[in-house]
Amino acid sequence: MPSPPVKSLSRNEPLSRKESVREVQRLHPPAVRAMHWINAAAIFIMIGSGWKIYNDDVILGWLHFPDFLIIGKWAQHGLQWHFFGMWIFVLNGLAYLSYGIATGRFRRKLLPVSPRELLQTIGDALRFRLTHDDLTHYNAVQKIMYLGVMLVGVVIVMSGLALWKPVQLSELAALFGSFQIIRIVHFLCMAAIVTFLVVHIALALLVPQTILAMLTGGPVVAAGDDLAPGAQARPLR
Amino acid sequence: MPPRQPTPSRPTTPLDRSVLTENKKLVDAINRRNVLRGTLSLGALTLLSGCDVTEEAPVQSFLRAVSGWNDRVQGALFRPNHLAPTFSPAQVVKPPRFNAYYPVDEVKPVDGAAWQLELSGRIDDKRPWSAQQIHALPEQEVIIRHICVEGWDYIGQWSGPNLKNFFQRVGADLTAKYVCFHCNDDYTESIDMATALHPQTILATRYANEIISDPFGFPLRLRTATKLGYKNAKWIRAIEVSNTFSETFWSKQGFNWFAGI
């Protein structure tokens, strides 16, 4: 029988050995890595310029962000950066959420979160017994952190839209309350993201191979892992 | 109120509009040319800590091009008949909060008796209006939220003739693109015609039922429910209806022109 021409595999067909080698996938596929670093740049712009905007009418009287931490010399520059960065943050964020849902990556990596495992992980962490031998498996605290920061990302965009267009999007703004309440929600979301970043970056520095993985893709995982919802990620080496 | 910053030197005579038009074209050309270059270098530039790159010409050019794009997005988002939330007289802040590009003690009061509102551009009846004539027009009251680009806000109660009705009375070209306001303190603002025709856009003469006091724009100021504070020109001396875009006091300095809320 003549061998069929090369065609894309439907996900139900069993993979031959040769094909599975070709389809081999790493922990972080190129799309995830690209979106992660684009998001990092966008977050950097949004926080730095947001702090500049905040400084012109502070919410907390004691809190002014120092000049060396903010982006934009004058108010208009902070605003220019913020309303440029928003496009990158929102478009990249939508692409990331769509990808994570469509490929089943979120379901596989982040769900379910068991309360028992969460307590166990927190206990281990407090006793410095947390291991990070297997980069492909997220512990319960990581799952909660990643799911939580995604939720905060959605709320910061919603509150940002309500701040930008409290009249045109008055129905959205009304969900939050007064204009100053929207500002506080937006500010608290920023604070939550900054807290996440402190932990995220500290842990990445403690386990440097996670940074390497986000640059090069990391360990090889099962063939077509991101295409097989429900499949358990397993390291091959 | 756009934020604290050095007061730039300002011309004491009105600007030659033809020069502005030519400059606008030039600025546009530079923007287009620099968008690609700006994009390519932006990633690297933003990571240079301790060095503010924002004011570098290619970066400013790129950021202003994005701001121009945001103007168009805001124009598309604008809902011509969607009303801003309104409030009760009990919520009104008295007096309103002062905002200008200089402190309140530098306000130069306008002599209401000698004052006239000039009309120019695409308007049939360009006869000037006295304060008395404007006070004789039917008034509309709006109790709306004033939102400053800095982040503060207050609820104000403004009344005066509806701008759309006024334009119909003087035969303004309602299909024109821009409405420019020239002010006694050399401030200039311009808004899109869709905003000018919004039902909650008025030429305000009163605040909380009293004649507007000097710091807040006596004898005539713009009050629109769909723009940030700085678009609401105070101490208006002339209104011009035009199809030609011209930069305004704050847009020249890099603030977003559309500034819709």
Offer a concise description of the structure.
With 237 residues, chain A is mostly helical.
Shape of chain A: globular
Low-pLDDT segments, ≥5 res of chain B: 1-12
Average pLDDT, all residues of chain A: 85
Distance linking N and C termini of chain A:
36 Å
Note the beta-strand portion of chain B. Answer: 15-25%
How many individual helices of chain B?
A: 5
Range of helix content of chain A: 55-70%
CATH architecture assignment name of the largest domain in chain B? Alpha-Beta Complex
Strand numbers in spatial order across the main sheet of chain A: 1-2
What is the fold's blueprint, element by element?
The complex is a heterodimer of chains A (237) and B (261).
Chain A: H1 17-22, E1 25-26, H2 30-55, H3 75-102, H4 105-110, H5 115-126, H6 140-164, H7 170-176, H8 179-206, H9 209-216, E2 220-221
Antiparallel strand pairs in A: 1-2
Chain B: H1 17-46, H2 57-77, E1 116-121, E2 129-130, H3 131-135, E3 140-147, E4 153-160, H4 163-170, E5 178-183, E6 188-192, H5 193-196, E7 201-204, E8 206-207, E9 210-211, E10 221-224, E11 236-242
Parallel strand pairs in B: 1-11
Antiparallel strand pairs in B: 1-2, 3-4, 4-8, 5-6, 5-11, 7-10, 8-9
Helix pairs in contact in B: 1-2
Note down, in words, how this protein is organized.
The complex is a heterodimer of chains A (237) and B (261). Chain A has 237 residues and is mainly α. Chain A has helices at 17-22, 30-55, 75-102, 105-110, 115-126, 140-164, 170-176, 179-206, 209-216; strands at residues 25-26, 220-221. Chain A has a domain at 28-103. In chain A, strands 1-2 form a two-stranded antiparallel sheet. In chain A, 27% of the residues are buried. Residues 1-22 and 227-237 of chain A have low confidence and may be disordered. With 261 residues, chain B is of the alpha+beta class. Chain B folds into two domains: 18-77, no CATH class; 89-253, Sulfite Oxidase, Chain A, domain 2 (Alpha-Beta Complex), CATH 3.90.420.10. Chain B has five helices and eleven strands. Chain B has helices at 17-46, 57-77, 131-135, 163-170, 193-196, and strands at 116-121, 129-130, 140-147, 153-160, 178-183, 188-192, 201-204, 206-207, 210-211, 221-224, 236-242. A five-stranded mixed sheet of chain B has the order 2-1-11-5-6. In chain B, β1 and β2 form a beta hairpin. The relative contact order of chain B is 0.18. Residues 1-12 of chain B have low confidence and may be disordered. The A-B interface holds A 41, 44-45, 53-54, 56-57, 68, 71-77, 79-81, 83-84, 87, 164-168, 170, 174, 179-180, 183 and B 2-5, 43, 46-47, 49-50, 52, 54-55, 63-64, 66-67, 70, 74, 77-79, 82, 84-85, 145, 147-153, 225-226, 250, 253-256, 260-261.
